[in-house]
Amino acid sequence: TTDPLVVFTPSGKRGRFPVGTPVLTAARQLGVDLDSVCGGRGICSKCQITPSHGEFPKHGITVREDALSDWNAVEQRYDDKRGLKPGRRLGCQATVQGDVVIDVPPESQVHRQVVRKAATARAITMDPATRLYFVEVDEPDMHSPTGDLERLARALKDQWDIDAVTADLSLLAKLQPVLRKGKWQVTVALYRDHHGGAARIVEIWPGLHESGLFGLAIDLGSTTIAGHLTDLDTGVVVASSGLMNPQIRFGEDLMSRVSYSMMNPGGDAEMTAAVRGALNDLAASIAAEADIDPALIVETVFVCNPVMHHLLLGFDPVELGQAPFALATSESLSLPARDLGLDAINPRARTYILPCIAGHVGADCAAVALSEEPGKSDDLVLIVDVGTNAELLLGDKSRVLACSSPTGPAFEGAQISSGQRAAPGAIERIEIDPATRTPRFRVIGSELWSDEPGFDDAIATTGVTGICGSGIIEAVAEMRMAGLLDESGLIGSAEQTGTWRCRPEGRTHAYLIHDATETGGPRITVTQGDIRAIQLAKSALYAGARLLMDNMNVDRVDRVVLAGAFGAHISTRHAMVLGMIPDAPLDKVTSAGNAAGTGARIALCNIGARAEIERVVRDITKVETAIEPKFQDHFVAANAIPHKTDPFPELAK
Ligand code: FES
Pfam families per the record (predicted)? Predict the structure, then answer.
């Protein structure tokens, strides 16, 4: 007689096993992805499976009701205490009795797939650096004296095949009481570095630890700091929260923070202390929001631009303010979180910081590359992360290039006469009627357009307060399309444009969008100075893209991805009318949302992604805009709207 056939779904892995083999054992032998924290002791419930009955012509078998063993006492006890879902069994307790088809539900898979975000089909495969292991440790013995740590290490080797472990002093200090409290059964959280070396015991609990393990993916921006608290078992983001970067008081943009450091001895240390304080506040508040003990946060991953990177690490960023823009290190960093002053989380938590690409192209751009994978693209993709510094990636399967471009803060509404941050009351959408040259607009906080009934009531609490970055881009593009601006960006007079809204202001003209002065509000105009600021910003962005295209030897890109919060808000058509981005079919210009934040989550959830991005970054060709003479030529030509010489055939369609 032959042994029963065991088929696992969805993997399709199959093999024959003697009657009485536990399902978990069969799964392991076949390399089926079936989870276990307790090592088959029937207490963690991670190994749940669902057997199927009936005819399986595909596999040539009939599965009888009794293909698995009856419930044993362990499984019965688990079900009495916790309850198993109907049809579910514990894979470590149920044994094979006959031919059987066994489904491994997603939550029982170790390398389960986690949705990145609703918009994309791609998933994150769970393989975190820190995992839980339940072990039974031998009690000490007068006759063969060994230390508790050594016996714990041996148990991990015997029960989990883990070779070498280390623990730091603070962990050793709690080892003995915890082992005894747990009656020699403990759960340890083990961190493995992707560069190898001994696994590190990050935490130890008596008995089976069931309140989970968490990591914090942090997008450390110069304006805002966003954190995503992630369950390291399921990959689910359990809470997200953000706060303003308190370094703003030392300078709005990156360069002013670098100069603060240059001008003030100890200024860098002040800024480091400020951001670390904010990170602790963020960790505490996000843990409170998710109702978890902050000590369960055992990992953090950071993505940030180079200046933020240095200030987080406590490096003076002064070298980043001047050519040749040398980083203290561009390599990724794995280090204890407490080295960064992060004391609101587990005292032995680890931090991983993605590598920087170059002195101007940071770990945030590396995270975008990890999330958007230009190096795996069949077609040529340009990825633009717009901020005070635009970071650009251009590439396909053959190679990937990167550069940054000094756009300045105009796209964020700064240095714009009526500009403001994206907040309720800010104009975010504008249309100008090409016949009457009258504007209509929408403000953040209301769905209504300004010429729709009820608009005034809808915005009563905020009023119209200014124009945000996406609003100013649309305003300038609409002004161009309505003939209020010429190609050089000059605003026409009332006579030239035929609208009283173009009014003299000094020696130039300004276009009136909204006048609320009668009710004590602002007068919102687009001035010639505003147009110039946007032209400078968009020329820098476009010139950066063109420089990468030159280096790639192409004059067209197949698609454009706009990354970042800003990219998610701007209208792609207006961006192209303005000539911010090279010509491409409009349906091939998409937004990736917060791709840097997604990259941070991927690196948090998957240890292999850390090695991958380090390899990818090493292979990226860095193009330095500051020393490329052609950058200036591209910059000047891109000053016209949309462009002096480059054609935009897609716009004509
Ligand atoms: Fe823990 Fe089965 S492996 S309950």
Answer: Fer2, RACo_C_ter, RACo_linker, Raco_middle
446: Cβ below 6 Å to ligand 1? no
Please give the model's pTM, rounded to 2 decimal places: 0.86
Please report the atom of ligand 1 found closest to the CA of residue 48: 2
User: Which atom of ligand 1 is nearest to 44's Cα?
Assistant: 1
In the reported structure, the alpha carbon of residue 294 is separated from the centroid of ligand 1 by a whole-number distance in angstroms of: 27
46 lines ligand 1 (CB under 6 A): yes
Give the pLDDT confidence of 585-598 residue by residue, as tens digits: 999 999 888 889 99
Class of domain 129-206: alpha beta
| Chain position carrying tokens 């910081």 | 353
pLDDT for the residue 118? 45
**What's the 59 CA to ligand 1 centre distance in angstroms?**
28
User: What mean pLDDT do residues 312-331 have?
Assistant: 92
Span from the CA of 8 to the centroid of ligand 1 (angstroms)? 17
Which pLDDT value is given to residue 16? 95
544-547 contacts, C-beta under 8 A, 24 or more apart: 544/390, 544/392, 544/403, 544/404, 544/405, 544/625, 544/631, 545/382, 545/384, 545/392, 545/394, 545/581, 545/582, 546/582, 546/634, 546/638, 546/646, 547/403, 547/623, 547/625, 547/628, 547/630, 547/631, 547/634
**pLDDT interval class at 369 (50, 70, 90):** very high
Domain 5-108 grouped into CATH 3.30.750.24: no
d(CA 601, CA 226): 12
Mean per-residue pLDDT over the chain, rounded: 92
Q: Is the CB of 42 under 6 A from ligand 1?
A: yes
116 pLDDT band, cuts 50/70/90, is low
| Assigned superfamily of 218-353 | Domain of unknown function (DUF4445) (3.30.420.480)
Domain edges within the chain: 5-108, 129-206, 218-353, 361-653
The atom number, within ligand 1, closest to the CA of 38 reads 1
3-state SS class at 306? helix
Find the 57 Cα to ligand 1 centroid distance in Å: 31
Q: Do domains 5-108 and 218-353 have the same CATH topology?
A: no
The model's pLDDT over 2-51, given as tens digits with 9 standing for 90+, comes to 899 999 998 889 999 999 999 999 999 998 989 998 989 998 899 999 99
49 lines ligand 1 (CB under 6 A): no
Q: What number is the average pLDDT over the span 441-466?
A: 91
